[in-house]
Every structure is written in C-alpha cells, then in structure tokens.
Design brief:
The chain is built from 7 helices and no strands. The protein is an all-alpha fold. The longest helix is centred in the C-terminal third of the chain and has 34 residues. The protein starts with a helix and ends with a helix.
C-alpha cells in the first residue's frame, strides 16, 4: 500500500511541475492587458493614416515634406530583437543552476536594450533638430510620438525589470527551482520585442507600400 501511495504522490508532484503556476498565468493576463492597449493605439494610428490619404500630400509627411526614414529604425530594430537571445540564455542558465550564464544573459539583454533606447532618443533628437518634428506637428506628430513613445516607455520598464533581476542574480537570490522573476522578465521582454515589430511595420514600412501603390 505504501508503494502504491508513494507512486500516486510522485505522479501528482510531476503533474504539478508540468502545469503552469498561478504566477505564470497572472503574467500572461498582465501582458494581454498591455497588448490590448497597444492594439487600440495601433488601430487609432491606422485610422488616422487612412484619413490622411484623403488629403493632398497626406498627413504623414514631415515638415520638410519627406517621409520618415526607415533605415536607422530598422538597424535599431535588429538590436532590440537580438536582445531576446541573451534573455533566453539567461533563463536557460538558471534552469540548470548556472548563475554565471544567468548574469551574462541578463547583462547582454540590458546592454542591447539600452542601445535600442538610445537609438530611439537619437532618432527623436534628429527629427526635432532637422525637421522640427514634434508632438505638435499636426496629427501625425501626435500619433507618431504617442505610439513609439509608449513603446519606449515599455522598453524602459522592461530594462528596469531586467536590471532588478540582474542585481538579485548577483546576490544569489535565484536557484534552479526558484527563479520565476527571471522567467517573468523574459516573457515581458519578448512581448516588448513582438510589439515593436508590429509598431515598426505600421509606422515605417506601411507608408513605403502606400508610396509604391
């Protein structure tokens, strides 16, 4: 009987380990709510862009009369997407109990995220100095800076999240069995990356298709 009971307990424990925790589902719910906010902002941006097509020369031109440059943001996008790989490496490291791999992965993701954020600030600076493009520049300025700036805010939050995990990793707070904060930070960071692909495609690539059309 004790053997049978032991097998039942072991089976139950394995089932619990395989299933997702409440913390994991809570993080999914939080990310989903954030995704809905971005969906509304992107829908509003697209609506205004369609309206802009009905006006001569369009609303989506800089004060200089040029369209947004997509080459620099595309390079910046590569850095952000690349930052997902060290985040994955960090999580895989702590799963194996490898603290050095965890620290190295988190540091790599943070550095690449900072490069992206610095690139976005540089783009904003150039738009202001070269084209006098601000949030007050017609509807386009408001829509552009609201959407891209809101994403930049989420990148900043993600960097803070990763930095806190890095500090805790250096202190030795995480183990192979206790590291949900690292997993949550990775989930949030992947969300930030995926959203940027959609934002980049909407803001920078879609106008190119309209021009060709």
């Amino acid at each position: 009987m004790s053997v049978v009971h032991g097998e039942q307990v072991r089976s139950l424990e394995e089932h619990v380990e395989v299933g997702r925790s409440m913390n994991w589902w809570g993080m999914i719910l939080f990310i989903s709510s954030e995704a809905l906010i971005f969906a509304n902002l992107i829908a509003a941006y697209l609506y205004l862009e369609v309206r802009g097509l009905q006006i001569k020369n369009g609303l989506w031109l800089l004060p200089s009369g040029e369209h947004l440059d997509w080459t620099f943001p595309a390079i910046n996008t590569v850095f952000l997407l690349a930052s997902s790989f060290p985040a994955i490496i960090a999580r895989k490291g702590i799963v194996k109990g490898n603290r050095k791999q965890l620290i190295a992965g988190l540091a790599g993701a943070i550095i690449l995220g900072l490069v992206f954020l610095s690139g976005q600030a540089y783009e904003y600076f150039n738009l202001y100095t070269a084209d006098h493009f601000t949030m007050q520049t017609r509807v386009f300025g408001s829509a552009f800076f609201t959407l891209t700036g809101f994403h930049g805010l989420h990148v900043t939050i993600g960097l803070i999240f990763l930095t806190i995990c890095l500090i805790r990793a250096i202190r030795g707070d995480f183990t192979a069995k206790k590291h949900f904060a690292v997993e949550a930070a990775e989930m949030y960071w992947h969300f930030v990356d995926i959203v940027w692909v959609i934002v980049f495609s909407t803001v920078y690539l879609l106008p190119l298709l309209m021009i060709k059309g």
